[in-house]
Automatic annotation (TrEMBL):
Organism: Campylobacter jejuni
Record protein name field: DUF3971 domain-containing protein
Chain ranges passing through the membrane: 5-23
Keyword Transmembrane carried by entry: yes
Record's keyword terms, sorted: Membrane, Transmembrane, Transmembrane helix
Amino acid sequence: MKKKILYIVVFFVVLILALFIVLKNGIVISSIQFDFLKLEQLYIKLDKKLIVRAKNITINETQNSEISSQIHSSDNASTEILKITKNLKYLYTFVEEIDIQNLNIKDNHVRILFKDNEFFIDNDLLFLKLTLQRQNKELIAD
């Protein structure tokens, strides 16, 4: 029984170590497509924090019913984006840069950029630009 537990622990340690090494070197995917998702020019790297860059991400609403049921209108999409901004403290803690040039979800095209303490979202109905600063344990957005 102890050997099984030891093998499982060693397996997970090796798996996490391998993932860490791969992310330290960076992952580049020129294009990958699934039924529900299409990614173009995706780059992921772990420096001190996570770096994610993508030229185009398309989420097909016909295959992903949960997303398509949540986003019925453009107003609802803007509300979802505002909910995302409320969780910026986690983004600020673990991510150095996110640069998604074109995110397509059910005919909504969104540009997302988080870099150098600035958070930027732009789509047809919403333009959001925030400067983030950490003071004590709070995250201040201007």
